[in-house]
Amino acid sequence: xxxxxxxxxxxxxxxxxxxxxxxxxxxxxxxxxxxxxxxxxxxxxxxxxxxxxxxxxxxxxxxxxxxxxxxxxxxxxxxxxxxxxxxxxxxxxxxxxxxxxxxxxxxxxxxxxxxxxxxxxxxxxxxxxxxxxx
Length: 134
Hints:
Layout: E1 3-7, E2 10-15, E3 17-21, E4 27-31, E5 48-51, E6 54-57, E7 68-70, E8 89-91, H1 93-98, E9 109-110, E10 113-114, E11 122-124, E12 131-133
Parallel strand pairs: 7-8
Antiparallel strand pairs: 1-2, 3-4, 5-6, 9-10, 11-12
């Protein structure tokens, strides 16, 4: 954000930064950090940034790749707070191999698989008292 800067009584308007030559060579750069909003939890561990109150040491963990497997109906995978490089959450192989149309009732769909299992109907002949299953 550009600010007015006064150096030795001279006002410089709309300065986004101030560069001052260093005696050993190079330049020291100064930026206005009044509008900075990063907190320690927003910056990775081992990294440093600067805000209106000065230096901010990062506290956000770098978790790398993360993921897991869901093996029960109520199963969940907790992704820890912090930075991740991505990952995969998948269903357990047993749950996938059992999810076939002949194991799912007709008219039902589970995980995109439509059922083909037809439940037998049971009827009783009123005169002969014989049960038949079809």
